[in-house]
TrEMBL record:
Name the UniProt record assigns to this protein: Alpha-galactosidase NEW3 domain-containing protein
Pfam families: NPCBM_assoc
Domain Alpha-galactosidase NEW3 per the UniProt entry, residue ranges: 107-173
Keywords noted in UniProt: Signal
Keyword DNA-binding: no
Signal peptide: 1-26
Keyword match Oxidoreductase: no
Disordered as annotated region, ranges: 49-92
Length: 280
């Protein structure tokens, strides 16, 4: 068997480093050629087909592993993935404060907003003085997931009490969840009686019985086009002159009294008389 071997050595210098390139042509029989040039190797058969691809050859003749170009795109096992937040809800209360007087009704709005939570929510009011009441409508609201529901809070302020500055707090509870919101309720020690327009000499719209506490200011406001003048006995002072529309007459209770004569002097007791008492 004849064999012809050709070897060429070419020296290349770059930054002081010798690069070698070999070209080997070997004829085995008469039809095989082997070429190894700058680490490229090919075995070409007589039909021109590549029998050994240099791109898959390692330096020692073994197979060369193919790098995984998509390694960074492999899905995480989930250990580092952020956990979804647990279902919850928030509560808000408006307005932030109300200023009123004795014997009035005040309204607040509670807004419940779901953050994935659904179900009934119980509401409890606290911070009000004894005898004051707060009612909810609806009393037990139900939240749908990612929805909002509003609740009306009605606060009834009784008359025979002293003024008070309260922080009304509403606590919402559902399962293991609990959130609170609060607003101010400022109540002056004042009770207002209003003579409505059109009353004239008829019914003045006064309550039949009225109890207030010492320190309370009783105000009679005339909204009628007809003039009115209030009659009182001690400890209140009789009004000296009739009051026109938009005017008012105020007296502050300085002592206790089981009965205080109270009626419209201009039109007589009929339709305007009040059984007024003053408590300590």
């Amino acid at each position: 068997m004849a064999r012809r071997i050709t070897r060429s050595i070419r020296g290349l210098f770059a930054a002081g480093t010798l690069a070698l390139a070999f070209s080997i042509a070997a004829c085995v029989g008469s039809d095989a050629t082997l070429v190894d040039k700058e680490h490229d190797a090919s075995v070409v058969g007589a039909d021109g087909a590549i029998a050994h691809d240099p791109d898959t050859a390692s330096g020692d003749g073994g197979s060369k592993p193919t790098p995984n170009a998509d390694a960074d795109s492999i899905p995480d096992s989930g250990e580092d993935a952020e956990a979804a937040p647990a279902p919850d809800f928030t509560i808000a209360m408006n307005p932030p404060s109300i200023t009123t007087t004795l014997g009035t009704v005040s309204h607040y709005t509670i807004t419940l907003t779901s953050a994935g939570f659904s179900g009934p929510v119980s509401l409890v009011a606290s911070g009000l003085p004894t005898g004051w009441t707060a009612t909810f409508t609806p009393d037990i609201p139900t939240l749908d997931a990612n929805k909002t529901v509003t609740v009306d809070v009605k606060v009834d302020v009784p008359i025979p009490v002293s003024g008070f500055n309260a922080t009304l707090q509403v606590t919402a509870k559902a399962a293991s969840l609990e959130h609170s919101a609060s607003s101010l309720l400022n109540v002056a020690s004042k009770y207002v009686l209003t003579i409505a327009n059109g009353a004239g000499g008829g019914n003045h719209g006064f309550p039949t019985n009225l109890r207030i506490k010492v320190g309370t200011t009783l105000v009679v406001r005339n909204e009628d086009t007809t003039a009115h003048q209030m009659h009182y006995s001690a400890p209140f002072a009789h009004q000296s002159a009739p009051m026109g529309q938009g005017e008012e007459y105020a007296q502050t209770a300085t002592a206790t009294a089981t009965s205080v004569e109270t009626y419209c002097h201009s039109h007589g007791p009929a339709g305007s008389s009040i059984n007024l008492a003053i408590d300590p």
